[in-house]
Amino acid sequence: MSVLMNRRAVLRQGGALIGAAAASSLPLASSFAQEKVRVRFAGYVESQEQLTQTLAALKLYTQKNPNVEIIPEFTSFGAFTDKIATETAGGNSPDMFSVNVDLLAEYARRGVTTPLDAYVPNPINLSDYLQSAVNAAKFDGKQYAIPNDAIGPTIITNASAFEKAGIKIPADMWTWEELAETATALNKALGPRFWGVEDAGGNYIPCDIFLRSRGKSMFTQDHRLGFELEDMEAWYAYWQKLRETRATPPGDVQALAGNDDPSTSGIVAGRAAMNITLTDSFAGFQALSQDNLILHMMPNGFRGGEMKQRHYCYAGNSTTVSGKSPNQKHVIDIIRFMHFDPEGAKTYYVGSGMIPCSKAARDAFAATGSEADRKIIAYLDVLQKEPAAPRYPGVPGMTGMLTRANEGVAFGKLTPKQAAEQFVREVSARLKK
Amino acid sequence: MDANNNVAAFLFLSPWLIGMICLTLGPILASFYLSLTSYDMFSAPQWIGFDNYIKMAFEDSRYYQSLKVTFSYVFLSVPLKLAFALGIAMLLNRGLRGLGFYRSVFYLPSLLGGSVAVAIMWRQVFSYDGIINQVLLKFGIDGPSWITSTDYALYTLVALAIWQFGSPMVIFLAGLKQIPQDIYDAAEVDGAGPIRKFVSITIPMLTPIIFFNFVMQIIGAFQAFTPAYIISGGKGGPADATLFYTLYLYEQAFTNFQMGYASAMAWVLVGIIGTATAASFLSARYWVHYGDER
Question: Partner of A430 for a Cys bridge, out of A24, A80, A332, A395, CB 3.0 to 4.6 A?
C-alpha cells in the first residue's frame, strides 16, 4: 500500500516534479571538449520513468560525443505547449523539440520547424517504423518529425470489476449501443457510486472513432471538418443518454477526472470500470491500480451498421527540428543515437513506458519488456491487422472545445444540438486562421 | 556639487529605474500596441485597429462569461473576507494572552493561500471523495463534487479567498488598537451596549482602515488567478463556471495564440480595476471619516 501511495503521490505531483527535475538537470557533457556545440532539447514526457530514461540516453550520447553539450528542458504536456509557444515567439526556440500530430501541423504551417526528408533513409531509416506514425509526422507531404513511440486508442478496462459484477468482457468488434448497455449493467451490479465507463464526450479520439463509425471523421486530409452538425449532435446525445442511464458519472463527478491524468481518473479512484484513452497511458494506470487492467477496443460500429476496425495508430511523441537551429546535423545525430544505436535505443526505451515505433524494437520488447509493455504490444498488433485510415491533423485546443460543450450538456446548460453548434463554431474559427 | 549629487542619486536609483523602464513600462506600452494588432506570437503583429476590442464587446460570449464569473467573485469574496477579518480582529483585540501567537496562526492561511499546494488540498477537501462528503455520507447524504459542480465551484473558490483573511485582519487589529479606550468608557457611562458601541464607535473610527482594506482587496480579487487555475486544471471548468477573467486571458494568449486579443483584454481589465478604485475613492467622501476632519 505504501508503495502504491508513493507512486500515486509522485504521479499526482508529476508536473511539478518533472519541472523541478528539468530545472535542476545540469548540462550533460564533460567539460574538457573543445569547440563545444550546445544543443537545446525541449520535450514533454508522460511519466517520471520516461524522463529518467530520456535523460540517461542523452547523457550516454554526450559521454560518447564530448564535443556536444545537450541542455534538456523536459516537462509535462500541458506546460510544454505554453512554454514552446512562448519561446518560439521570443525567437528563442530550442534546437529540437517534441510535437504531437496537432502541434506538428501548427508549427510546420508557420515555418517554425524544418523538413527532415534529406536525412531519411540515411541516417534515419524509418522503413520498419509503424507507417501510420511516420505519416502522422508528415505535413504537406514532407517529413517534419521523427516518431518516437507507437500508440493507439483503447479502452483501459478493469477486468476485475467485470468479474466482480459477473459480466462478460465483450468482443472487440462491438457496437456503441453495446458499450452503453454494458456500462449500465456495471452500474446496476456495482453502483450507486460506481459507473461503467468514464464520460469521454470531451475526448477527441473516441469522438473521431464515433464519427468514423458513421462514415465521417473529425477532420479531412485537406484540413477541413469531416462531419455534419447532426453527427456531432449525435455524439453529445449519446453521452447524455449514458448519463441518464447511469452508465457514466454525472458532470460534477466526471469533471474531477480532468484530462488524461491517471491519478485523478475514475478507474483508479474505483469509480469506473472503463476509461477511454490512448495506450501510452496504460502503464501509468496499471501502476496505480491493484486490479487486473486490460486493453480493449472501442466500439467499431452501430447496431445494424457496418463493423470495421476503426482505430488508427500513430506516435504520441515525435521529435522535430527548429528551422533556425544552426546545429541540425548534431540534432539528427542525437535522434539517430536514440533510435538506432543499440545501446542508445535500449537506454531510451527500456523501462520508459514508451512502445518503440520500429517493428524490430517492438519485437525485442515483446520478449523482454514488462507485462504492461507486452499487453500494449499485443494490442497494437491486433490493430495492425486491419489498419484504419490515419488520424488527420486538427487544431490545438480541441480537448478544451470538446470538453466545454460536453460539460454544457452534462450540467444542463446546453442541449446536444446547442453543444454541437458551439463546438463547430469554435473549431471553425480556429481552422480559418 | 549638486550635479554630482544628482549623478550619484541616479546611479543608486538605476537598478530600479532600469527595471521599471525595461521590465515594467516597456512591456506595458508594448502590450497596448499589441492590443491593436493581430499577433499569434510566430509571425509579425498586424495592425487591425480596434478590432480586438470590438470582437470582445460584440462577438465573444465566453468573454462575458469571464466577466460574470469575476464580478460575482469580487462582489462575494471581498465583503465576506473583510467581515470575517474584522470579526477575528475584534476577537483578538479583547486583551488575550499570547496575542502574537494567535495573530501568527490566523495569518498563516494568507501566507499559504495563494500557493499551489493549498489549491490542491482544497480540491481534495471539496471533491467527490473529499472529507466533506465523507462526513455527509455518515448522515446518509450523497454530496456532489463541490469543486467541480457548476452550482458550487465558484463558491468553493470564494470560501478559499475568505480563508485567506490574514492581511486585512492584521491591519484591522492595528486599527482597533488605535481607537482610544476613553471613547468606549464614555459611551458605557452613557449606557451604550456592545452593539451600539460597535456601530457608533468602532465602525466610524475604523472607516479609513476599512477603506484601505477594501481597495486593496478589490484590486487583488479582480486579478485572482492561481486558485482557479489549479483547481480547474487551468481550464476554468466545469463548463466555464470558474472562467476567471485572468484565466481566459491566459488561455487566449498561450493556448489559442491570440496575444493581441489577450493584450486588449488586459487593458480592459486595467480600465475595470481603475474604475472600481476611482469609484471607491469617490464614494469614500461620504462614508470614510478621518480624525483630522471637521
Answer: A395
Do residues A282 and A154 lie in contact, with contact meaning Cβ atoms separated by under 8 Å? yes
State the pLDDT at residue A336. Answer: 92
* Contact yes or no for B233 and A192 at CB 8 A: no
A259 to chain B, any CB pair closer than 8 A? The answer is: yes
User: Does the beta carbon of A351 lie under 8 angstroms from any beta carbon of chain B?
Assistant: no
Q: Please check whether residue A271 is in contact with residue A253, taking contact to mean a CB–CB distance below 8 angstroms.
A: yes
Interface check for A292 against chain B (CB to CB < 8 A): the answer is no
Q: ipTM score here?
A: 0.78
d(CA B20, nearest CA chain A) in Å: 20
Q: In angstroms, what is the C-alpha Rg of chain A? A: 22
Interface test with B, best of A80, A103, A203, A256 (most B CBs within 10 A): A256
Least confident span in A204-213, B49-58, B64-73, B253-262: B253-262
Q: Nearest CA to CA, how far is A251 from chain B (Å)? A: 7
Which of A285-289, A362-366, B88-92, B200-204 has the lowest average pLDDT?
Answer: A362-366
Q: Tell me which chain B residues have a C-beta less than 8 angstroms from the C-beta of A112.
A: 42
Taking CA A123 as the corner, what is the angle to CA A119 and CA A124, rounded to the nearest 5 degrees?
70
Question: What is the distance in angstroms between the Cα of A264 and the nearest Cα belonging to chain B?
Answer: 11
Q: Is the separation of the CB atoms in A289 and A268 below 8 Å?
A: yes
Q: How far apart are CA A291 and CA B116, in angstroms?
A: 31
Condensed to tens digits (0 to 9), the pLDDT of residues B113-172 reads 667 777 788 888 888 888 998 899 888 888 888 888 888 999 999 998 898 888 899 999
CA of A31, closest CA in chain B: separation in Å?
A: 34
| Residues sharing a CB contact under 8 Å with residue B194, sequence separation 6 or more, in sequence order | none
Q: How far apart are CA B38 and CA B194, in angstroms?
A: 61
Selecting from A82, A253, A400 the residue whose C-beta is nearest the C-beta of B254 gives A82
Give the A:B interface size as CB pairs under 8 Å.
Answer: 87
Residue at grid coordinates 523538413? A115
Distance between first and last Cα of chain B: 46
CA-nearest residue to A112 within chain B is B42
Task: Summarize pLDDT for A176-219 with one digit per residue, the tens.
Answer: 999 999 999 999 999 788 999 999 999 999 999 999 999 999 99
Angle between helices B99-113 and B153-163 (to 10 degrees): 140
Which residues of B are less than 8 Å from A407 in CB distance?
A: 150, 237-239
Among partner residues B43, B240, B259, which is closest to A404 by beta-carbon distance?
A: B240
Q: Which residue has the higher pLDDT, A239 or B19?
A: A239
Encode pLDDT of B66-113 as tens digits: 999 999 999 999 999 999 999 999 988 887 788 888 888 888 877 776
**Residue A20, pLDDT above cutoff 60:** no
Any B CB within 8 A of A221 CB: no
Q: Give the integer Cα–Cα distance in Å for B254 and B248.
A: 10
pLDDT at A433: 60
> Mean pLDDT throughout A266-278?
91
Phi, psi (5° rounding) for residue A78? -60, -45
Secondary structure element (H or E) that encloses residue B264, with its range? helix B259-287
